[in-house]
From TrEMBL:
The lineage of its organism: Eukaryota, Metazoa, Ecdysozoa, Nematoda, Chromadorea. It comes from Panagrolaimus davidi. Keywords: ATP-binding, DNA-binding, Helicase, Hydrolase, Nucleotide-binding, Nucleus. One of its GO terms (cellular component) is nucleus. The keyword Secreted does not apply. This is SNF2 N-terminal domain-containing protein.
Length: 190
């Protein structure tokens, strides 16, 4: 049996286990030198001021996001990456604030903060300024000051042009030439 076949068979076996046994298995085979996320509460990574600012349903949503996207065995430490999550609710209940608090938490998670990763926020064009305003709120204490940018190209750029400014800016950001971790783009820019 080849190494790849062994990995596939082991992965299939691990996925057949209940989640708690998957977590135990992961801790048994994970090299001790690899630091995993705290797997406690992501809320531990938030300042006391932010925790007081958030409503209870927002804290629950942050925990949900963490469990679905980051925490082993389902998170991005899994061979297939995080499972993903969607937060959907009525307008005005703090989904943007919840998401920004989640991002704040993972950026402060010791095992994650040393990774070089990017966050792409795809938003309707009429909500982009709302996202920017959220990242600039005083509650974050300037944490996102040098981390957030938006795609500056006009929406009416030519999508068939290989030198399209939007694509060039997106590529620059992805390659790290735009020294920002978070990019906000409109639905029309991708």
């Amino acid at each position: 049996m080849s190494q790849e076949e062994i990995k596939i068979a082991f992965s299939q076996f691990a996925k057949s286990l209940p989640p708690e046994e998957q977590a135990q298995l992961a801790t048994m085979i994970m090299p001790s030198s690899q630091q995993l996320p705290n797997c406690g509460s992501i809320l531990d990574q938030l300042s006391n001021a932010i925790k007081e600012y958030l409503k209870e349903h927002q804290k629950e949503a942050i925990e949900f996001l963490y469990k679905r996207i980051i925490e082993p065995p389902n998170g991005f430490y899994n061979k297939d990456g995080g499972k993903g999550a969607i937060i959907a609710h009525n307008m005005g209940l703090g989904k943007t604030t919840t998401t920004v608090a989640f991002i704040y938490g993972i950026f402060n998670e010791p095992a994650i903060k040393k990774l070089n990763f990017k966050i792409l926020i795809v938003s309707p064009v009429n909500v982009i300024q709302h996202w920017i305003d959220e990242f600039e709120k005083p509650i974050w204490d300037g944490f996102f000051k040098d981390k957030v940018c938006k795609l500056d190209a006009p929406i009416c750029s030519n999508k068939n042009d290989p030198h399209d400014i939007r694509r060039m800016q997106l590529g620059d950001w992805q390659r790290g030439e735009k020294d920002k971790s978070i990019l906000i783009v409109s639905l029309f820019c991708i």
